[in-house]
Amino acid sequence: MRSILRRLWPETPPVSEKERLRAAVGAVIGILITGLIGSLAVKADPVLPALIAPMGASAVLLFAVPASPLAQPWSILGGNTVAAIVGVTAALLFENLFLASAVAAGIAIGLMMTFRCLHPPSGAIALTAVLGGPTIHALGYGFVLWPVFGNSLALVALALVFNNVTGRTYPHRVKQAPIDHGTRDPAPIQRIGFSSEDLDEVLKEYDQVLDIDRDDLETILRRTELRSYRRRAGDLDCASIMSRDVVAVAPESSLKEAHDLMRAHHIKALPVTDDNAHVLGIVTQTDLLDKASWVGGRPKIGFARRFRLVMSGASAPNDTVKDIMTSPVKTVRPDMPVSEAIVMLAESSLHYLPVTRANGKLVGIISQSDVLVSMLADKAAA
Asked: What is the pLDDT of residues 66-83, one digit of tens each?
């Protein structure tokens, strides 16, 4: 019996109490406000339903699994609309309710997969159009606009606000693309283990709908691979390999001063610190090339960059480091294992990581070259 129950019990990743509460509260707010909006919308015509049952199933996806491809705005709006059209059409064409229901559900699923708007609750929308009774049938194709599209639009809008306010990005964004160096070489993170093409071929062979974004799946697999490498790596920490005599620059320093420091010390990055050595950002050779305009051999802030800074609410640009620095900046602690720093460098396509104490004060910096040397030394020692 235990064996049978274990097979029936889904193997899902553990979810924190905080996340369970967030999803439940989101569904309460979403359905409640959608219903209230519906009641206001149908005051002029009391025959119209304010809220339909399939919205409860949509709420499960929108608030509990907002990263799912099945929960994205196009999935719910497109899926529900397509299913409603198909359901109304089937109800008009077939007198037998069972036949109409079967045709509506089947065709709706096929069309949703074709238009890439698969949304499981839409199957209930198609059946509602057939089995909803005289009130729904009397609406005809008006059922598509209200309550289906109206309810769906309200619920999506509420999910967009609630998820982002509570720390869940919605609509779910595809992962940030690695920096393109304009060559045929793949990003560093893609040079180990499997390739993106390998994953695409496996997914083609698998040939099933997965309730996870393809790029999310690749990210999970690559992080698992990196964590495996990290587990097998040595115990070397960042303090052991970092440069300690760090050349830094103040945010008020001129762009020319930053450029001169890089040339004088033959380096390509400068941590930006305040008077107490707290790290505020980092400025790199790439920042000087991409974000500054060169006039008479001197870096200055051009009109386009100046306009963007003003529109973003930044203080008036005056050709200083703060106008082009990257802030906030990723940092590591001295006692962090080098293996973890490797993961940060690889995943974010970074070349430098400032090393700071717990209070944010700069104590060193590590580069990809430092990491490479440490890996070779560790290999030689082994």
From this structure: 999 999 999 999 999 999
Each residue's pLDDT tens digit, 177-232: 555 545 455 655 565 567 788 899 999 999 998 888 888 888 888 878 767 666 65
Helices (H), the chain: 2-8, 17-41, 54-59, 73-93, 97-114, 121-131, 134-139, 142-143, 150-165, 196-206, 214-232, 238-241, 255-265, 285-291, 303-311, 338-348, 368-381
279-284 and 293-295 beta bridge pairing:
unpaired
Q: Are residues 111 and 221 in the same domain?
A: no
Report the amino acid identity of residue 368. Answer: Q
Q: Which residue has the tokens 């973003």?
A: 312
Provide the CA 23 distance to its chain's centre, in angstroms. 18
CB half-sphere exposure, 127, CA atoms < 13 A: 12
Residues 206, 330: one domain? no
Which among 369, 341, 382, 331 is positioned nearest to 237, based on CA atoms?
A: 341
One-letter amino acid at 202 equals V
**pTM, to two decimals:** 0.62
Residues 242 and 212 in one domain: no
Is 280 part of a structural domain of the chain?
Answer: yes
Last residue of a domain, one of 113, 134, 165: 165
For residue 105, give both structure tokens.
């559900």
Cβ neighbours of 97 (radius 10 Å): 13
